[in-house]
Amino acid sequence: MAHALPDHEPANVVSSARKARRFFWPGGLSSRLLILTALFVILAQLLILAPILASFEERWLSDRVRLAELASTAVDGAPGRKVSRALAKQLLEGAGVVSIAVQSDGVRRLLLAAPRMARPPYLVDLRDRNPIAWLSAPFQTLFGGKDQMVRVVAVPRFRDGEFVEIVAPDQPLRDELWTYMARLFAVTVFISAVAGGLVYVSLNAFLVRPMQKITRAMERFRADPDDPDARIGLSGRRDEIGRAQAELDRMQIDLRLALSSKARLAALGEAVAKINHDLRNMLTSAQMASERLAQLGDPRVSQALPRLERALDRAVTLATEVLAYGKTQEAVPIPVALSLRAALEAAAEDAGLGPHGVSLQAPIPARAQIMADPDQLHRILVNLLRNAREAIEAANPGQASGQVTVDLSQDDLTSLIRLSDTGPGVPDKVRANLFQPFAGSGRSGGTGLGLAIARELAQAHGGELSLVEGAGPGASFELRLPGGASPIAAVRSQKPRAMPSRRGSAPPS
Predict the structure, then answer these.
(1) Of 21, 228, 348, 489, whose CB has the highest number of CB atoms within 10 Å?
(2) What's the helix, strand, coil split of the chain in %, to 5?
(3) What are residue 419's DSSP bridge partners?
(4) Domains of the chain and any CATH numbers
(5) CA 358, 364, 366, 368: dihedral to nearest 10 degrees?
(6) What is residue 504's predicted lDDT score, i.e. its pLDDT?
(7) Which helix (H) or strand (E) holds 125?
(8) Residue 26 main-chain phi, psi, to 5 deg
């Protein structure tokens, strides 16, 4: 009873087929190189096989012609130019031919001949041979059949005449051709093995092993990026292998830094998640205390309460938003026309600037307005002013005196705010990663989040925050915001832009 075959082959059949293919074609690069080298050498020998065999056959036939030509000289020295049958047989057997003829002055003369042949011989003319006939002659001898005769015509060397002609059995030539091919094949196999071995050893040393090291380093790095053995060792080579090693090393360093930053962000989020609840409870208690203070009716308390309430509101908002740092989107900015001078004074107060110590110098008219989200602009300015104050205080411990100067320039489309301080400036080693979280801090204990957050908030407005190179002894930053000298027109044309989703908000640092 016939059984239907399954639509899909079993897994073990597929696996066996793959193993069979792998047996005939190994997966290792070294083994493939060895096999390919041997095959290429054999192919090269096959390509030159026909010329080698043709030269061997031509040499063999030429030798028979010269032996027969020398044997024919005995006929010229005999009385009446005739020899006995026994001597003729001996001469023909010594030359390995069955007949010898010479043509001179247009007359062909048979000098020595055996009995008549059953089959006519095939012709090989050594005087003028075209390449195709020369290359195909050995294969005609090898595969033309047994008990054949070959008729050879050549230019005489030891006697006068137009040509000398011999007829000889091709069986001895066929046997010697097969023997020569066997020796040639053995030599070819030996050369293939030696050449393949040399190529295998050299390529394995200069190419395969370095690639294996790179592969193992990549596999170890993928399994455990913190494994010290996963780092590739640089060999100092200037070829493609050396470039691959250098690029892999740089890639591993960059990935380790990225993974470290992500780990620190995860740790930051975990820590904030733990303290966020308690912090909000404490801020709520502070808000309730401020409400009770407002009921006292003291004028001095009433004057200070608005500042306290604003600070508490910002603290509650930041404590809530920092929990989602790196996970959610920043709030979409809502630009409005606001006084830059008033925003600077409020930010300087929160950043710790005052008449004693680091002061703020802002020669900006009170009526000068810019387009920005009030809360986000406040965070940008606080980050910049606080960084400047901390840099000045770190450079002059004990006598923290300095100033931060803020200038404003505007045209019809853009407002450019420049903040310059009298601190030590930004170190060269920090400039490359200045706006990268956890990598751009130039002071001990800093996280590098402040400038990163400030720049992202500026970009959310459609502007930019950048470091001004060579602006002076201290650090100088430019905050470029859309909306120029006509804030009312800018309000109508400004479209809020979403903050990039790769980071969230965090407190100034």
Answers:
(1) 348
(2) 55, 15, 30
(3) 406, 477
(4) 48-169 (no CATH), 332-440+448-493 (3.30.565.10)
(5) -130
(6) 39
(7) strand 122-125
(8) -65, 155
